[in-house]
Write a structure and sequence with these properties.
The complex is a heterotrimer. By secondary structure, chain A is of the alpha/beta class. Helices cover 44% and strands 17% of the residues of chain A. Chain A is elongated. Chain C is mostly helical. In chain C, the strands form 2 sheets. A two-stranded antiparallel ribbon of chain C has the order 1-4. A two-stranded antiparallel ribbon of chain C has the order 2-3. In chain C, strand 2 (141-143) and strand 3 (146-148) form a beta hairpin. The longest helix of chain C has 27 residues, at 198-224. The two termini of chain C are 23 Å apart. In chain C, 57% of the residues are buried. The chains are: A alpha/beta, B mainly alpha, C mainly alpha.
């Protein structure tokens, strides 16, 4: 009898010990290769770096983090297959990923059906509007970018605006949002041109814009090499009106590629880009400076706002797991939804049942390129 | 002529010259081997990426460019030896799959050997736009146009005045007869692949200052170069140039006067129309078909 | 041979669920089936009738979007929308096939490539109707009041459609039309000389393969619950042609095997992480260089040769 109860106690202790060692499974599907490698590559690096750091510091609630990450290469179909794999085979506790909106939207029905908390790293407003129970996101929406830009244009006296956008999902989604919110923001869209993926010259489109009567400012919705070419063409044609880019090109690569042509270009971006020059009193300064230093020290390459979104996604998940006391999916979801006052690289996050992104317009800063570097527009 | 139209024409010719160089690469290989090399765009990419890598490691631009062209030429020869020669008796479709597989392989290698970032080269003679008829033109564009003209002239001289060039032409007309005359078909194939690769690399280096380069810049350019080569009539060098320029002008004028969102659609609709009414392309030869 | 082959296929399809452990593996099997449906049709065009199409994903995309838009934006009952979409795509294929199939070889390749790109660009640009490059959600198929959802149910739906498609293909190949296709492939002029109208038969192969691609596209849309223009892209067209050529041209089972291997391969290659692309390209090249006839015909020949060896 004694021996049996000893056995039972031993088994129980072993079981709970095994339970305690059970890692917390973070599932990620990112566009590490393909047309959106610009997004997925820093995201992948960031997740690897911080999972390592967190584990080195003892893990979360005494449990190690384990990262399962797949390259969906910007393909929504692949993303779907990988998310199924992550949920069914790898049995992850939380999903962080979906570099592009297309991939995210493919994964949304799966996360909803399987009741897995999903933090998306993509930009379009459609991800969290209408609100879906299990889906959250960390980047600012493209609609917020339009609003920020239009407000700045109004402040400079420009109300007749020309749009030029690329062909990708990010480009078209932001363009659609800008067309929607223009009137509400006091701005009129007088021209709407497009270029294709891989195009090498946009002077034809810009010539049309230049010759549009009354145009007072131009906004380029795009990312990758397109906007850099547009910027160079803009200066080549000698267009004088203010030129705005989107947060899609919030990286030094854009400035480097555009060279002198980028002088005076404005864009909305996260404070991460001007981390060191933020005033000391800025509450966001510590988070962004730390992330910037750690990322650049490890990877020897420029920090990127997209990597910042992955950082925020991981940290929000970890924070929610801590507050939920474990990986019970419903509890983690509730904890995520009640995140308040969390300071991330994108800004301060206050989630609610109606708002699964938690950022407001102040999280976006207006930056201007001067002498090849970012400066904050006050 | 309105300044607007001049600007559209300038844009069209800029695009057209690039497409022409890529199309020329397709034409040379097709002429010698009747293979469409879907990896042609990747040679353009290798030229640009290798040149930027060499420049970053300290070489002066002319040396870096020469080294990049040499590197691409070697890759072209390797492609011919390792992929095309072993499969020389395969069907058209199989060869298409092989060269597409090669382009995927080269892209994957490029993203590993270099990186997935976008790179640029300094413009050869600066960036001050040149005013012409109310429009503006970049000096680099003149380099692209100039190089295309020089390439066409050099190739004409090569094909018509040198032994190797004539050998390539002979093989393209009748492979068996050429072999009977003592021409090494293998050497001819090697030379044409190497030549095409070098030409593609040159194009990549010339356009890197204006439209940058990255590991996947070859996909779209390869596709449009192929379309231009077909439009001009496969296997015809002058046809490839004409096709390239035509494609560039259609795109620019379509974007300018019709709809910029649909400019590629116009281009392909026109190509389709041209093919239906001129099944051998603008300058294509009516080949006699063995029944 | 084809009767035996069909029986084997039916057996594999019936027994496969025993090996499928979770929804993810079911998903892979379903995608294999859907790709196989397109490939069997495409093989009739490429392998038997000897034509080429580098734009077949365009038909796939049109079928998918046609059915999705009719169901989502116009409230059509899903099966009616599906049938209408397949019929419409067949009509489109018939209309454009007539002039385009007069072209040969690389010119035909270019024409079909151009068509595919036109479809992909239009689908991505008309975002008010199609949802743009990010795609649109698609309502599921319903049979009366029953909603057709779930991996296990869809496995059987796709299995039945695939078996029906293979049956159709095998019977067509052995019919006068199939023999006409093979005659065409051998020599168009000679076929014409013995009274086979090349234009009519090329068109029939083209339209049939387009209809099958559209059907697979519509089924994919309703199964996945979403659709993006990437499904009509040049890359997808190339994937489809590769599956057909890799599996073996002029071999219906080859098309199925090609679809199966090339759909599951990327899933297996994830272990290679950043070397995935390099590996895929290398696999494509090596298999085509060493097995230019494709996998199944090469295996068939090897088996036949082994059997002929004296024991």
């Amino acid at each position: 009898m004694f021996f049996r109860s000893l056995l039972a106690v031993g088994a129980l202790a072993l079981a709970s010990a095994v339970q305690a060692q059970e890692p917390i499974r973070i599932g990620a599907f990112l566009s590490v290769t393909g047309p959106a490698a610009f997004l997925g590559d820093p995201e992948q690096k960031t997740l690897e770096l911080y999972v390592e750091k967190i584990n080195a510091a003892g893990g979360v609630l005494g449990r190690k983090l384990q990262l399962y990450s797949y390259d969906s290469a910007g393909d929504a179909e692949k993303a779907r297959a990988y998310v199924k794999r992550l949920i069914e085979q790898d049995k992850v506790d939380v999903l962080v990923g979906g570099s592009t909106t297309g991939e995210t939207m493919a994964a949304v029905p799966l996360a909803e059906a399987a009741n897995v908390p999903f933090i998306s790293l993509a930009g379009a407003v459609v991800i969290i509007e209408p609100v879906k129970k299990w889906v959250f996101k960390t980047p600012h929406t493209d609609r917020m970018a339009c609003e920020k830009v239009f407000d700045d244009m109004r402040a400079r006296g420009a109300t007749k605006v020309a749009l030029i956008s690329g062909a990708g999902g990010f480009d078209r989604s932001m363009r659609a949002e800008c067309l929607k919110v223009a009137a509400q923001r006091g701005v009129q869209i007088v021209a709407d041109e497009s270029y294709g993926a891989g195009d090498t010259d946009m002077t034809a489109q810009l010539t049309k814009i230049k010759n549009t009567p009354g145009v007072q400012a131009v906004l380029n919705c795009g990312f990758g090499q397109g906007p850099a070419i547009v910027t160079k063409n803009y200066r080549q044609l000698g267009i004088q009106v203010p030129f705005y880019q989107s947060h899609g090109v919030a990286s030094k690569q854009y400035v480097k590629l555009s060279g002198d042509a980028a002088e005076g270009v404005r864009l909305p971006a996260a404070a991460l880009l001007v981390a060191e020059t933020l005033p000391a009193a800025d509450k966001q300064k510590k988070v962004v400076v730390d992330y910037k230093r750690e990322y650049e020290a490890r990877f020897k390459s420029e920090v990127s706002t997209f990597g910042g979104h992955a950082y925020d996604g991981l940290m929000l998940a970890v924070d929610a797991i801590k507050r939920a006391g474990g990986t019970d999916r419903a509890k983690v979801r509730d904890a995520l939804e009640s995140t308040k006052g969390y300071m991330g690289t994108a800004g301060v996050v206050n989630m609610s049942p109606k708002d699964h992104m938690g950022l407001d317009l102040s999280a976006f800063r207006m930056l201007e390129v001067r002498k090849g570097d970012w400066t904050l527009v006050q | 002529m309105s300044a607007e139209l001049v600007q559209f024409l300038v844009a069209g010719i800029t695009l057209g010259a690039i497409y022409a160089l890529v199309a020329l690469g397709f034409a040379i290989i097709y002429n010698a081997s009747h293979v469409i090399n879907f990896a042609q765009g990747e040679f353009v990419m290798i030229g640009g990426m290798a040149a930027t890598a060499f420049v970053d490691s300290g070489l002066p631009l002319p040396l870096a460019a020469a080294a990049a062209v040499a590197a691409a030429t070697l890759v072209g020869i390797a492609l011919e030896k390792l992929a095309v020669e072993p499969a020389r008796n395969a069907s058209v479709v199989t060869l298409i799959i092989i060269t597409i597989g090669a382009s995927i392989l080269l892209r994957g290698l490029a993203s590993l050997v270099w990186d997935k970032k976008i790179h640029s080269l300094p413009a050869f003679t600066g960036e001050r736009p040149i005013a012409i008829g109310g429009a503006t033109l970049l000096p680099q564009t003149l380099w692209v146009l100039g190089a295309t003209v020089v390439a066409v002239a050099a190739l004409w001289w090569f094909f018509n005045r040198t032994l190797t060039g004539s050998a390539i032409l002979a093989v393209s007309h009748n492979r068996l007869a050429a072999r009977l005359m003592g021409i090494s078909v293998r050497r001819v194939l090697m030379v044409s692949f190497g030549l095409s690769a070098g030409l593609g690399a040159l194009a990549g280096i010339l356009i890197a200052p204006i439209s940058f380069t990255s590991w996947d810049v070859g996909v779209m350019l390869g596709l449009k170069g192929f379309a231009a080569a077909i439009l001009g009539g496969l296997g015809s060098g002058p046809g490839a140039i004409a096709g390239g320029l035509a494609l560039g002008l259609i795109e620019a004028l379509g974007a300018g006067y019709l709809s910029s969102a649909y400019k590629d659609v116009f281009a392909f609709v026109i190509i389709l129309g041209a093919l239906v009414f001129l099944p051998d392309g603008l300058a294509g030869r009516r080949a006699a078909e063995r029944v | 041979m084809s009767r035996k082959g069909f029986a084997v296929l039916a057996l594999v399809v019936a027994l496969l669920p025993l090996a499928l452990t979770n929804n993810y593996t079911y998903e892979v099997a379903i995608v294999v089936g859907l790709n196989a449906i397109v490939c069997v049709g495409l093989n009739l065009l490429i392998g038997y009738a000897g034509q080429i199409s580098l734009g077949h994903a365009g038909f796939f995309g049109l079928g998918a979007y046609g059915s999705a838009i009719l169901a989502a934006r116009y409230g059509w009952p899903p099966f009616a929308g599906l049938a209408a979409a397949v019929a419409a795509v067949s009509l489109i294929a018939w209309i454009i096939g007539k002039p385009v199939l007069r072209l040969k070889g690389h010119y035909l390749a270019m024409a079909t490539l151009g068509l595919g790109i036109i479809v992909a660009v239009v689908l991505a640009t008309e975002d008010q109707v199609t949802g743009g490059p990010d795609g649109m959600p698609v309502p599921p198929l319903t049979l009366g009041s029953v909603v057709l959802q779930g991996e296990k149910l869809w496995y059987w739906i796709v299995a039945v459609v695939l078996l029906a498609t293979v049956w159709l293909a095998l019977n067509l190949i052995d019919s006068p039309r199939g023999r006409a296709w093979r005659a065409l492939h051998g020599s168009e002029v000679a076929a014409g000389a013995i009274g086979i109208d090349p234009a009519r038969h090329k068109l029939s192969a083209f339209v049939l393969s387009a209809a099958l691609a559209a059907l697979a596209g519509a089924l994919t849309a309703h199964y996945s619950g979403f659709i993006t223009p990437a499904k009509a892209s040049f890359l997808h067209s190339i994937e489809l042609v590769t599956m057909v050529v890799f599996g073996g041209m002029a071999s219906t089972f080859g098309a199925v095997v090609g679809a199966a291997i090339l759909t599951t391969l990327p899933q297996l290659l994830t272990v290679f992480k950043e070397y995935e692309m390099v590996t895929l390209g290398a696999v494509m090249m090596l298999t085509m260089i060493f097995m230019p006839q494709g996998l199944v015909p090469t295996l068939e020949k090897a088996l036949a040769a082994a059997r002929r060896k004296p024991e």
